[in-house]
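Practice problem 4.
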C-alpha cells in the first residue's frame, strides 16, 4: 500500500450522520470530521420511519465535500450505522415501501406472535442473540403481515448500512458484524438459519450473502463517481455495525478485558473467540454479536445516557439552563452510595418524556425520597448505570468462567469522568480509556486493514492504535 492516502469513514447515527477524513501514511494517521448532518426519524400514521432520500442527499453532500478537500483522491470509503433495521429493494434496486425504525410499535406484537411459532429459547439457542423486539426478524414479520404485497415485490432485504453501500456500488451484502442482530443467523455456521426462515415462511432467496468485515465491494458506481468526483474510490464494508467499529478501535489486548461502548446506549461486554450459548446466557439475555477478526462481541445492551439526555431535554423545555458539563462538575464528588434505580428492567425509562417523574416513581418504589434538583437526578442516573454495569459484568463472568480485570470505555461517554469513576468503583476493574471517536476510528482502521489485505484482530487493533482524532478526542471534558 503506497503512502499518503485518504480514507473516508461515514457513521450514521440516530441523531446525526458524520463524515471523517483519515490521512494514512502507512505507519500512522489522523482523522478529522469534515461534515455532519442532523438525523431523526419521522412519524407516518402509526409508524416510525426514516427519510431515506433525505439521508442519501446528505451522503452525497458529504461525498462532494470529501472530493473537494482531496481533489478527488480518496482511496476508499466505508459506512457504518446502527443494526437490526432493514430496507426492502426490488430487482431494479429501488426501495420498496418505508424504512421502518426499530422502535416502531408493531415489532413487539410481531415478537409475541413469533414465539407462538418457534419457542423463544429455541430462537436463542440457534442465534445466540438477545431477545429484543427491535431485532430485524420481528420487523420483517410485522411488515409481511401488514403489507404482504410489498414483500412479494421484494428482491432482497438489506440492513441499513448495507443498503447505503448497495446504493454506492450496486453490490448487495450482509456484513457479518451487522447480520446477526437480525436474530436470523445461525451463531455457529455464521449463515442464515434455514430452520428459522422456513418456520416463519421467509424466503432465503431474498437474503443477501453474508460477507466478513473488511470486504472490498468494488468501486463507486460510474454515474455516482462522476457526480461526486471520486472516480477511483474503492468502497469497503467495514465493521458495518457501529458498536463493532467502536470495539475494533480498542487498542488493548482482550484477555480479561471488559468494555463499555458508552453513549445514548451502553454496550457492556467482552470479546470472545466463539459464541457462548447457555441457559444462564439466555436467562441474562446476553447476546453473541459478530466481531472483527473472527471474534464475538459477548454483551448486554444497557439503557445508557439516554436518561440524562431526556432529563436535559425536559429541563431545557422548561427554560432551565442546564448543561451536561455543569452537571458533571456538580456531581464530581458524588459517592456510589445513595439513591439509585434498578435498570435491570429498562421499560420504565425507554419512552421519551417525563423522565423526572419516571425516575421518582422508581425511587419511591425502592424506598428513596423524591429528587428534584438537576444535579441530584444526574447523580441517580450515574449511580444506577454504574450498578447496572457491575451486574452485567458479574453475569458475563459467570457465563464465560473467566475473570475480568480491566475495563476499557470508548465512545462519547469516555468524557463523562463522573460516570467512569463510579463504574470503576462499582465493578472493581482497572479503568482504561479508549477514544471518544472509537466508531470512526474503527471504521477507518477496518478499511486500512482491507486495503492491506489483513483480517487479523491484532493487525486491526494495531492500525487503530496508530490513528488519532485531531479534535474532540480527549478524555478530560464531560459529556452526556
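Answer key:
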Amino acid at each position: 500500500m503506497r503512502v499518503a492516502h485518504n480514507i473516508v469513514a461515514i457513521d450514521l447515527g440516530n441523531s446525526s450522520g458524520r463524515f471523517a477524513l483519515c490521512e494514512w501514511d502507512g505507519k500512522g494517521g489522523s482523522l478529522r470530521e469534515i461534515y455532519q448532518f442532523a438525523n431523526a426519524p419521522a412519524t407516518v400514521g402509526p409508524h416510525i420511519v426514516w427519510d431515506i432520500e433525505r439521508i442519501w442527499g446528505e451522503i452525497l453532500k458529504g461525498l462532494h465535500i470529501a472530493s473537494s478537500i482531496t481533489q478527488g483522491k480518496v482511496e476508499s470509503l466505508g459506512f457504518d450505522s446502527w443494526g437490526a433495521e432493514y430496507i426492502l429493494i426490488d430487482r431494479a434496486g429501488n426501495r420498496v415501501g418505508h424504512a421502518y425504525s426499530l422502535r416502531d410499535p408493531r415489532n413487539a406484537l410481531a415478537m409475541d406472535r413469533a414465539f407462538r411459532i418457534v419457542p423463544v429459547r429455541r430462537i436463542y439457542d440457534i442465534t445466540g442473540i438477545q431477545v429484543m423486539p427491535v431485532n430485524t426478524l420481528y420487523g420483517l414479520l410485522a411488515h409481511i403481515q401488514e403489507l404482504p404485497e410489498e414483500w412479494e415485490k421484494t428482491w432482497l432485504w438489506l440492513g441499513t448500512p448495507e443498503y447505503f453501500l448497495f446504493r454506492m456500488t450496486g453490490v448487495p451484502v450482509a456484513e457479518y458484524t451487522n447480520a446477526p442482530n437480525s436474530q436470523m443467523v445461525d451463531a455457529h455456521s455464521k449463515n442464515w438459519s434455514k430452520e428459522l426462515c422456513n418456520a416463519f415462511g421467509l424466503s432465503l432467496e431474498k437474503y443477501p450473502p453474508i460477507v466478513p468485515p473488511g470486504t472490498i465491494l468494488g468501486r463507486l458506481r460510474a454515474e455516482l463517481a462522476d457526480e461526486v468526483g471520486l472516480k477511483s474510490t474503492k468502497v469497503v464494508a467495514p465493521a458495518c455495525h457501529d458498536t463493532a467499529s467502536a470495539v475494533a478501535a480498542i487498542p488493548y489486548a482482550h484477555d480479561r478485558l471488559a468494555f463499555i461502548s458508552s453513549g445514548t446506549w451502553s454496550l457492556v461486554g467482552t470479546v470472545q473467540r466463539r459464541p457462548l450459548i447457555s441457559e444462564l446466557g439466555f436467562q441474562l439475555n446476553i447476546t453473541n454479536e459478530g466481531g472483527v477478526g473472527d471474534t464475538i462481541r459477548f454483551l448486554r445492551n444497557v439503557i445508557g445516557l439516554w436518561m440524562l439526555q431526556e432529563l436535559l431535554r425536559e429541563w431545557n423545555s422548561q427554560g432551565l439552563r442546564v448543561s451536561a458539563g455543569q452537571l458533571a462538575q456538580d456531581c464530581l464528588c458524588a459517592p456510589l452510595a445513595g439513591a439509585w434505580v434498578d435498570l435491570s428492567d429498562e421499560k420504565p425509562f425507554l419512552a421519551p418524556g417525563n423522565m423526572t417523574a419516571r425516575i421518582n416513581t422508581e425511587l419511591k418504589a425502592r424506598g428513596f425520597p423524591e429528587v428534584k434538583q438537576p444535579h441530584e437526578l444526574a447523580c441517580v442516573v450515574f449511580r444506577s448505570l454504574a450498578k447496572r454495569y457491575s451486574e452485567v459484568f458479574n453475569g458475563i463472568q459467570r457465563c464465560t468462567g473467566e475473570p475480568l480485570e480491566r475495563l476499557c470505555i470508548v465512545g462519547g461517554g469516555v468524557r463523562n469522568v463522573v460516570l467512569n469513576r463510579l463504574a470503576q468503583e462499582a465493578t472493581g476493574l482497572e479503568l482504561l480509556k479508549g477514544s471518544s471517536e472509537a466508531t470512526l476510528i474503527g471504521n477507518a482502521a477496518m478499511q486500512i486493514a482491507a486495503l492491506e489485505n489483513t483480517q487479523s484482530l491484532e493487525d486491526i487493533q494495531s492500525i487503530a492504535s496508530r490513528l488519532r482524532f485531531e479534535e474532540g478526542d480527549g478524555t478530560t471534558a464531560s459529556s452526556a
